[in-house]
Amino acid sequence: MGVAETSLLFLWWHGVDMRLWVWRHFRMELPADWEMLQLSRDPAAGRCVFADRYQYRFEFNWRQVPGRPDFERMLSDYQARLTTAGGLTDPQPEKRGVWRGLRGKQGGRWISRLGAYFEREACLVEAVFIWPGDPDVALQRAILEGMQPEPPWGEDLRRWRAFGMDWLVSGGEGPAECRVQPASTHITFCKGKPPRQRETFVRLGLVPEWLKGTVRDWLALQKPADVSIRRRDVFASAGHSVEWVEGDRPVRGLGRLRGRREVYRAAAWMCPRDGRLYCISVERHAAPRAADLAGGRLSCCGDFPLRAHRGL
Amino acid sequence: MLEAKAIRNAAASAETRADGTVRVTVRTQPLPWMTGALRWIIRPKQAKPFTLDRLGAEVWGLCDGRRVEEMIETFAERHKLTFHEARASVSSYLRSLVQRGIVAVAYDNTAD
After folding, report:
1. Domain-by-domain residue ranges, chain B?
2. How far from A14 is each of A61, B19, B22, CA to CA, in Å?
3. What spatial distance separates the first Cα and last Cα of chain B, rounded to whole Å?
4. Which of A32, A189, A237, A272 has its CA 20 to 30 A from that of A253?
5. pLDDT of residue B18
6. Is there a contact between B22 and B51 (Cβ–Cβ < 8 Å)?
7. Which of residues 4-63 of B touch A (CB under 8 A)?
8. Residue A182 to chain B, least CA–CA distance (Å)
9. CATH 3.90.930: does it fit domain B5-111?
């Protein structure tokens, strides 16, 4: 049993339910009642902020850097800056595995800041813990030990997991668009400029309040205006009834004169576990088979896990 | 806000309809200068009706003096939402109910 497993076992024993998040190719297990309230889409530098129901609890900051930074110097500069301008008092150095940082009091609260450099991702990551009372060393340890780069799935697929969805996207780009509202999440990834490929992942709640027809009717309405639907079907998998459609539309530019068409594929289903409506749509020249989108690219629950095979 | 309690306006009466919506009527106080002949001529409305959709009606139903945090927990459980999702919905409904004068939000200073 590894150290991370030991820490997670400790938290489980103490009744801390943890949930996996994967954002910007990093995985982290955080207490299940922490929600992502702020997010960045930029893979080069950004920040995600998590909060429990009372206050901000955790920040995940990242910055792509060309090489391993001089941690000792960076830390002493950081500490000096926080002490003079940030009002940090009582700073104490912290070290946990690859993580280096400091803990101190700021605005009457204990805050732990730890950073690590991940070679393969060429990325400097900072984890900031904001403690409502005394620092919870076991929780901090478990979270830090679980914060790791999420390796690619297959040749080109990258995993993301947030807001109740678990999905695979081709390419390493960040989301082009993120609309996260209560019970409504739309995340779109685009590849190329202008976009040659567009993948959209949707999760919608409060379904009985707004869905008056069937999932099939709803899915038909989601297609872009210029898409012609050629095929539609339904299949059942692990208790999920998945509606899917395939269509195409003329490509833009010269390709249109040559009669080239762009593939559109989409799948939608209700998850019986959480009662939410999930939808994935892919627009590109060589999209995966529509029947492989549900579960293959977007997963809603453990009954319907991600699988990156079957011709993806 | 989570510690606050949402209390219905005692001057409001509610009528639940078959489709799950609720029609809430609040008695209004006449303006102090609107008396005598002026009041007879203008005939101001003595009550303001509001129709709440099903979710609004549910939030209204939860305004029974319990803490806002408990209201959010109940709403989240009923609709399979996370606490933060339910908080956004309940807070926005509560805000509109307070603006219409149907509900008041009170903080208990005597606690502790």
Report:
1. 5-111
2. 28, 45, 44
3. 16
4. A189
5. 87
6. yes
7. 54-55
8. 4
9. yes
